[in-house]
Amino acid sequence: MHSWPGTEEAPGVVRCHEHGLEAVRAINAHxxxxxxxxxxxxxxxxxxxxxxxxxLSRQSRFENGVAIRGGVPICFPWFGAHASxxxxxxxGFARTRPFRYLGSSLTLGTTKVSFELVADxxxxxxxxxxxxxxxxxxxxxxxxxEFEVENRDQRELDFEEALHTYFSVGNIGQVALEGxxxxxxxxxxxxxxxxxRESRLTFTSETDRVYQSSxxxxxxxxxxxxxxxxxxxxxxxTVVWNPWIEKARRMSDFGDDEYTAMLCVESAxxxxxxxxxxxxxxxxxxxxxxx
Length: 291
What we know:
Blueprint: E1 13-18, E2 21-28, E3 31-36, E4 42-47, E5 74-75, E6 100-107, E7 110-118, H1 121-126, E8 131-139, E9 143-151, E10 157-159, E11 161-163, E12 166-168, E13 175-178, E14 184-187, E15 192-195, E16 200-202, E17 207-212, E18 217-221, E19 226-233, E20 237-242, H2 244-250, E21 262-269, E22 275-277, E23 282-290
Antiparallel strand pairs: 1-2, 2-3, 3-4, 5-11, 6-7, 7-8, 8-9, 9-23, 10-22, 11-21, 12-21, 13-16, 13-18, 14-15, 14-17, 17-20, 18-19, 19-23, 20-21
C-alpha cells in the first residue's frame, strides 16, 4: 500500500477512508467529489444544490484487486476482454491498481486532485511496457476528468482506454441520449454494425454499443427533469451500455433492479481508434460533465 504525501491540502480537500479504502474528498462552492486511490476511481460528483450525477451500485465490492461497480472506472491498457489472453483482467489493470495520490490545488475557486500510476513488476507481468498514467479530477462550474498517458518505453505504445462513466438517472425507460445521430456503431448485443439514424437513442432492452464518435452527448433524464451534457476531447469512440434485466441478475456486484437507475456513456478509444504513442509522447483523454 502506498503512503500519503506529507504536503498540506488545498482548502476543502480532505484525505479519508471510505469503505476501508483510501480516498480524497473535495468540496467547494461548486459541489463535491470523492475519488478512491484504488483505481483512481471517481465515485461521487454532486453539483451544489443538485442531485448526484454519478451512479454507484449498492452491491459494489470495496476490496483490493477488485473493480468498483460505478462511478468512473479507468479502462486501460485494453478495453473489454484481452485480445489474446482471456485469463488477463477485463478492461485492463488500471481500475484495480492502487494509484499514488499526488495532491491538490485550488485556483480561482476550482479544485484539482491528481493521482499517478507508473509501470511496476505487477503491470509489466500483464503488459510489458514502461508508462506513466495520471488521473486529474477538476471540480469547478463543471466536472473535468482527464486521463493522461505518457510513453516511457523505448518502443511505441499501442493501447485502448476508456473513462467508463456510470450516470445516475431517474428511470432508464424515460431516458434519451442525444448527439450520436449519423455515427456508425458496432452493436455487441445484436452482433452487427449499423448507423444511428434517429436523433435520440432510447432504452428498452440490453444495450452495448460502440459508436465511432467524438461528438458531445446529452442525457435527457425525463423522470428527474434533468439534462447531463458529456463533452470530450482526445476520444474517438463512445460506448453506451445498460445491462437490462437478465445481465443485471447475473452480476454479483450489481443489484437485480439497479439497471433502471443508471446509464453508462463512456468516453473511449477502442478498436481501430486505439491510441499509438511514440517514445516520450503523451495522450490526454478529457471529459467535461455538466448537469
